[in-house]
Design goal:
By secondary structure, the protein is α/β, with parallel strands linked by helices. Helices cover about 55% and strands about 5% of the residues. Helix 8 runs antiparallel to helix 9. Its EC number is 2.4.1.-.
Length: about 475
């Protein structure tokens, strides 16, 4: 009997592919994004600008030539963000408009975090990770701040998203992978240009490459492709970093790190201690003995340690510089829901909202970001005279100048003894400071008023019969 030889090729082993965008997957992404959009736009213009935000408004209001000259001497590390805001503020300069790019960047970060969780663990984890990031007090605080931290956080997530998407499966067309690596290189470049310290998150990227390869993808030469892409991406940040290092005297006020400030950095990633405990508990439940978990732990834990070491050598360590590590903790927490349904993920969102509700509402008040400079400026504007001055401090140079910019009265800034042409001087000081302000010796106090975080007093020369002396 003749032996029949089969000509059918053996079935190739199955490979995992990204989950398709089913209606359930779309909903899993849409829910956190919608939550983030509503939350981050809620009362975005209510808190008064704090000093750093006022500096953003002040410096981006320069002409382009003046701004470039300013960046060549100071704040080169903020140059990309300031140039972006310089164009943005041509269309408006109110508090809400200044903060809108940060809000949109944080919403986009939530979307990418949810999509990464969906690809790794499914729809329930996507809902949980996205909601936990969107509802964190940290996200709300920096989504409503006219500084580059929300944009840097988005770019840190975008770099990971592009890295995970960059590899191609064996047998697929190579240009797909090359486009992905180009996107990764661009994300790394933008990340370093916007916030050079955020490049510390790259320490986790080799582990992500290893995890991607273990997932059955990444191409035949993922390490070579990654090295080329990351080297290309670091060119522009290297130039920015060199310029910022030459200007390091501008951050000489930063204290060397301690165990306490290192702990503050981890708390800052969540926004409050209570929310950090919630995320950490879920993250422990979501940990697995796999390369992806190791990579996420490295993303969350190693940059603070590295920046602390750098901070011992040169002023560099601020907790807010490490907010770019927060998405890793949200992803680890969301991983705990890989075996649960979406309704359980929704429940943890309600729990997160309950834990975060008080700080979420407090930070949206007039003094949610710091002293209520807006109300102080209104008091001054209501009784400002042509021969008035304000005592020169950071408060008056930055915040007060912003809030009095459109007023008819623009009091001059003075320090030390009053010029003969000045008869009254306004003084701003912290509300906790009970001592008599400096620079008012020989002057008579007319009145004082306390606002949230701030005391405003008006002083005048002793009665001499001179016009305007009372």
């Amino acid at each position: 009997m003749a032996q029949v030889v089969s000509t059918v090729s053996p079935t190739p082993p199955p490979t995992r592919s990204p989950r398709r965008r089913s209606p359930a997957a779309v909903a899993a992404l849409a829910l956190p994004v919608l939550c983030a959009l509503v939350l981050h736009l809620w009362r975005i213009g209510t808190p008064a600008l704090w000093l750093d935000e006022a500096a953003t408004a002040q410096d981006t209001d320069r002409s382009l030539g003046s701004l470039i000259d300013f960046l060549s001497h100071r704040d080169a590390g903020l140059g990309a963000y300031y140039l972006l805001l310089h164009g943005w503020t041509r269309l408006g300069e109110g508090e809400a408009w200044l903060r809108l790019p940060s809000a949109l960047a944080m919403v986009a970060a939530v979307a990418l975090v949810a999509d990464l969780a969906r690809r790794w663990w499914g729809n329930s984890s996507a809902v949980a990770s996205g909601l936990l990031l969107a509802l964190s007090p940290m996200a709300s605080r920096y989504a409503q701040e006219a500084r580059p931290y929300a944009l840097a956080l988005f770019l840190a997530v975008a770099a990971v998203w592009c890295l995970w998407r960059a590899g191609t499966r064996p047998g697929r067309v190579g240009w797909v992978g090359r486009v992905g690596w180009i996107g990764y290189a661009v994300a790394v470049a933008l990340l370093g240009v916007v916030h050079v310290f955020a490049l510390l998150t790259l320490v986790a990227h080799p582990l992500l490459v290893a995890a991607r390869r273990a997932d059955g993808a990444g191409g035949t030469r993922p390490w070579k492709a990654w090295l080329i892409a990351v080297a290309a991406g670091l060119v522009a940040p290297a130039l920015v970093g060199a310029a910022a290092f030459r200007q390091r005297a501008t951050i000489s006020w930063i204290e060397p790190p301690s165990l306490s400030t290192l702990g503050d950095a981890f708390t800052a990633m969540a926004g409050t201690t209570a929310f950090l405990v919630l995320l950490a508990t879920l993250a422990v439940l979501g940990l697995r003995r796999d390369r992806l978990s190791v990579a996420l732990v490295a993303w969350f834990g190693l940059p603070p340690l590295l920046l602390a070491i750098l901070g011992l050598l040169t002023p560099a360590f601020l907790p807010r510089y490490l907010l770019v590590c927060a998405p890793a903790l949200a992803l680890l927490a969301g991983a705990a829901f890989r075996r649960f349904g979406s309704w359980q993920a929704g429940l943890v969102g309600l729990l997160a909202l309950a834990v975060a509700w008080v700080p979420l509402t407090q930070m949206r008040g007039p003094a949610g970001h710091g002293p209520d400079y807006r109300s102080a400026a209104r008091m001054i504007a209501a009784d400002c005279r042509a021969d008035d001055a304000v005592q020169e401090t950071l408060d008056t140079v930055r915040a007060l100048r912003y809030y009095l910019r459109d007023g008819s009265c623009q009091p001059r800034r003075v320090s030390g003894a009053l010029p003969a042409s000045v008869h009254r001087v306004w003084v701003l000081q912290p509300d906790w400071q009970r001592t008599k302000p400096s620079g008012v010796t020989g002057l008579r106090q007319l009145r004082t008023q306390t606002f949230a975080g701030l005391r405003v007093s008006l002083w005048t020369r002793a009665r001499t019969g001179a016009p305007g002396s009372g």
